Amino acid sequence: MTGKPCVQTDTQLTLLFSREAIAARVRELAAQISRDYAGRGLVLVGVLKGAFVFLADLMRQLQVPVEVEFVRLASYGKGTTSTGHVRLIQDLEHDIAGRDVLIVEDMLDTGLTLHSLVQQLRARQPASLKVCVFLHKETRTLHPLSPDYVGFTGVEGFVVGYGIDYAEQYRHLPDIYRITQVT
Ligand code: XMP
Ligand code: MG
C-alpha cells in the first residue's frame, strides 16, 4: 500500500491502514472471536477514548450476544510519550464476576496500560478475561502481555485516526496514519 502524505500545518500524515484494510481485518477478528465464544455471552470492555471506533465496528460484526462497558485509563498526557502513570478515571458500570470479559483496546505499546487494567479486572474474578488490541507496536514492550486478538502488528511511530488521537485531534479520520512533525 502506498502512503499518500497529507500535510496539515506542521504535521505530516502518512497512510498506514486504509479503511478497506481496517474493515477486512475487523471482519476477520470478529469471525475468530465469534467462533471462540460460540454459545456464550460476552462483556466487551472498551478502553476510552481511543478504542470506541474499533469497538463499534467490531461489535457489529460479532455473532454472539454482547454487553458493552467502558473504562477510562489515563497513561498518556497530551504529548506522544508515556508518563508511566496509569490512573482509572472511569470504572465499569456492572459487576463482571463470573462473566466472560474481552478488553477492547486501540493500541498496545509498552504494555503499561493493559497490564494495569488486566490486573485490576482479574481481581474482580471474571470467568475469563482476554485482550483484543487493534494495533500492536511490539518494539517498546516493558510489561510482557500477550494479547489474545491483534488487528495489525509491527506498527511503528505515533499513529492517529480510527478513534486514535494526537492531542485529541484526528480521531475522526476513517483511515490510520503515522503522524510526524515537519520542521
Ligand atoms: P502502553 O504504552 O500503555 O500504551 O501500552 C498504550 C496506550 O497508549 C496510547 N498510545 C497511543 N495513542 N497514538 C495514540 O494516539 C499512538 O501512537 C499511541 N501509542 C500508544 C493508546 O491509546 C493506549 O491506550
Ligand atoms: Mg488508549
Task: Flag low-confidence runs.
Answer: none
Bin the strand percentage.
35-45%
Binned, the helix content reads 10-25%
Report the end-to-end length measured between terminal Cα atoms.
26 Å
Distinct small molecules bound, one entry per kind:
xanthosine-5'-monophosphate, magnesium ion
The total of beta strands comes to 10
Integer tally of domains: 1
Structural class: alpha/beta
Number of helices, where a helix is a run of at least 4 consecutive DSSP H or I residues: 3
Strand order of the biggest β-sheet? 5-4-3-6-7-8
Kindly report the average pLDDT value. 90
Supply the CATH architecture: 3-Layer(aba) Sandwich
Name the quaternary structure. Answer: single chain
Shape: globular
The largest sheet, given as strand count, sense and whether it forms a barrel, is: 6 strands, mixed
Explain this structure.
With 183 residues, the chain is of the alpha/beta class. The chain has one domain: Rossmann fold. Helices cover 20% and strands 37% of the residues. It has three helices and ten strands, in the order E-E-H-E-H-E-E-E-H-E-E-E-E. The chain has helices spanning 19-36, 52-59, 112-122, and strands at residues 6-8, 11-17, 42-48, 66-76, 82-90, 100-108, 128-136, 149-153, 159-160, 176-181. The strands form two sheets. Strands 5-4-3-6-7-8 form a six-stranded mixed β-sheet, sandwiched between helices. A four-stranded antiparallel β-sheet has the order 1-2-10-9. The model has no long low-confidence stretch (mean pLDDT 90).
